[in-house]
């Protein structure tokens, strides 16, 4: 569990196995709030907060309670419970201190609860990592990957506004095509073999 | 009995989780409590929710907040009708004044066949882009570019570009003024909904120049100004302007205008140029079909 290992986990989660472009998790908010870079950034930060803390907590709960009492079959319920509480907390916090972002995110803020990227990060961490530090770093890096993806795509969509596609491609279809092209670009990283450590 | 123990443990731990998380949320909801004025919700429910910006605020939410906070008039919303204004006033414990309904009017008559072009534009189909190229394709520096930035901005689908000039469907227009703010040429004006006449030109060029590039431009001859019995028309910078406070709708200006650019509801039909207006129906556009057959 040295630094190189953690960096490797982070690099892999951000670039090679990007949640949006490689694992295709959390696509709903990715399409929903990428209209505007500043809102997208807010969404990215909100998801980063939730995923990082939830990974820390869910890993702890899994190791300390679920495993010793052989309750692993309740993983999904326990994890969703943690995530829902964190999202509620975040919602209250934003409403109180950043009302502009609260209104801009709208329905997508409570929907972080059902964002499969959050549950996905928790389940993947429990499955693949052995220490709480690794799991937390993995969660944080995955969320940064989400932030990077949504920011890139918000930039693309800003340009898309001025594009003049055929009428039947206007709006969501051309947005999905653009998302597909971004995913293809990211697939260029998929050849990197991280088992042969580059660090 | 290991199975029974599993159920017991599961129940115990999840009860503990639930209780702990519930308590944490309860504490946080007290810490992060936001005081909101119940009037904001009430007023917001009465606003149309179009977020058109006609009131001068960024959204209906912002407008509701301003009305509830006493920072805006109870009739600030241009989309809501008198009935809704009265309800908002009642919610605020005030009396509503009568609001004057207004509609947008594009002050240009230079359709493709009447106004000359200086070049063929083949760029982005958007007025703001086109105006950067020598002020748009039309020779007239004040003419409608006709690429429909206003139509795209209109939240009520009340604007359609017909024959190179934007035309307003008065039944659908609610006078929010979004198009007025959008038009890069500044040739859309808000006029009273029941205004009978308007000047379909904004050109400040001299008469000879106007004649050279447009068959329907105002040449500033002042015939309307001289003949108006109520003194409602003034010609400044070679273009006529009607003061609707004074206009009685007598129609003399329309008759006298040698360029036939003072329009009324009736003259439009006679000329075959449909600008969406037929009977100045004051039903606030509620029953008007959106995207009606006129733009087909």
Please explain how this structure is put together:
The complex is a heterodimer of chains A (199) and B (296). Chain A has helices at 3-16, 27-32, 37-66, 75-97, 99-105, 116-128, 132-160, 172-186. Chain A is 69% helix and 0% strand. The two termini of chain A are 14 Å apart. Chain A has one domain (29-189). Chain A is mainly alpha-helical and 199 residues long. Chain B is of the alpha+beta class. Chain B has helices at residues 2-31, 38-46, 60-68, 82-91, 127-130, 149-153, 178-182, 207-213, 223-227, 252-256, 265-271, and strands spanning 102-106, 159-162, 165-168, 188-192, 197-199, 233-236, 239-242, 262-264. Chain B has a two-stranded antiparallel sheet with strand order 1-4. In chain B, helix 2 crosses helix 3 and helix 2 runs antiparallel to helix 4 (82-91). Chain A binds chain B through residues 61, 65, 69-71, 74, 77-78, 81-82, 85, 88-89, 92-93, 95-97, 99, 103, 162, 164, and chain B through 6, 9-10, 13-14, 17-18, 21, 24-25, 28-29, 32-34, 61, 124-126.
Task: Provide the helix percentage of chain A.
Answer: 55-70%
What is the C-alpha radius of gyration of chain A, as a whole number of Å?
18 Å
Query: Mind describing the biggest β-sheet of chain A?
Result: none
Query: In total, how many beta strands of chain A?
Result: 0
Overall geometry of chain A: globular
Low-confidence stretches of chain B: 269-296
Q: What is the average per-residue confidence, as pLDDT of chain A, rounded to a whole number?
A: 88
């Amino acid at each position: 569990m040295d630094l190189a290992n953690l960096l490797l986990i982070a690099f892999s989660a951000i670039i090679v196995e990007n949640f949006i472009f490689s694992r295709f998790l959390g696509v709903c908010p990715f399409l929903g709030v990428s209209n505007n870079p500043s809102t997208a950034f807010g969404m990215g930060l909100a998801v980063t907060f939730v995923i990082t803390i939830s990974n820390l907590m869910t890993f702890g709960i899994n190791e300390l309670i679920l495993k010793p009492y052989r309750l692993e079959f309740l993983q999904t319920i326990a994890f969703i419970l943690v995530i829902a509480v964190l999202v509620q907390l975040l919602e209250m916090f934003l409403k109180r201190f950043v009302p502009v972002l609260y209104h801009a995110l709208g329905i997508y803020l409570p929907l972080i609860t059902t964002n499969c990227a959050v549950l996905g990060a928790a389940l993947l961490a429990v499955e693949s990592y052995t220490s709480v530090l690794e799991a937390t770093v993995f969660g944080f890096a995955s969320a940064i990957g989400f932030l990077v993806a949504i920011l890139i795509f918000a930039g693309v969509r800003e340009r898309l506004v001025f594009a003049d596609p055929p009428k039947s491609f206007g709006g969501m279809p051309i947005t999905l095509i653009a998302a597909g092209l971004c995913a293809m670009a990211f697939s260029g990283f998929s050849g990197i073999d991280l088992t042969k450590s580059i660090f | 009995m290991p199975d029974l123990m599993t159920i017991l443990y599961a129940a115990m731990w999840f009860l503990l989780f639930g209780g702990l998380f519930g308590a944490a949320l309860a504490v946080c909801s007290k810490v992060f409590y936001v005081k909101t004025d119940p009037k904001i919700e009430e007023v917001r429910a009465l606003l149309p929710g179009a977020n058109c910006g006609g009131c001068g605020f960024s959204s209906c939410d912002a407008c509701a907040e301003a009305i509830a906070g006493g920072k805006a008039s109870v009739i600030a919303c241009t989309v809501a009708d008198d009935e809704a204004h009265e309800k908002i006033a009642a919610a605020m414990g005030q009396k509503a004044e009568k609001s004057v309904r207004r509609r947008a009017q594009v002050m240009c008559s230079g359709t493709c066949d009447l106004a000359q072009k200086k070049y063929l534009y083949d760029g982005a189909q958007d007025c703001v882009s086109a105006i950067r190229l020598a002020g748009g394709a039309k020779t007239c520096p004040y003419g409608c570019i006709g690429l429909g930035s206003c139509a795209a901005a209109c939240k009520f689908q009340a604007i359609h570009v017909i024959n190179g000039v934007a035309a307003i469907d008065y039944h659908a227009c609610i006078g929010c003024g979004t198009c007025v703010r959008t038009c890069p040429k500044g040739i859309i004006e808000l006029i009273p909904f029941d205004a009978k006449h308007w000047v379909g030109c904004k050109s400040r060029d001299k008469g000879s120049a106007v004649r050279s590039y447009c068959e329907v431009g105002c040449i500033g001859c002042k015939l309307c100004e001289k003949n108006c019995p109520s003194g409602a028309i003034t010609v400044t910078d070679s273009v006529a302007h009607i003061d609707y406070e004074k206009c009685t709708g007598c129609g003399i200006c329309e008759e006298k205008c040698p360029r036939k650019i003072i329009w009324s509801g009736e003259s439009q039909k006679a000329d075959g140029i449909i600008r969406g207006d037929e009977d100045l129906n004051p039903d606030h556009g509620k029953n008007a079909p959106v995207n009606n057959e006129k733009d087909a």
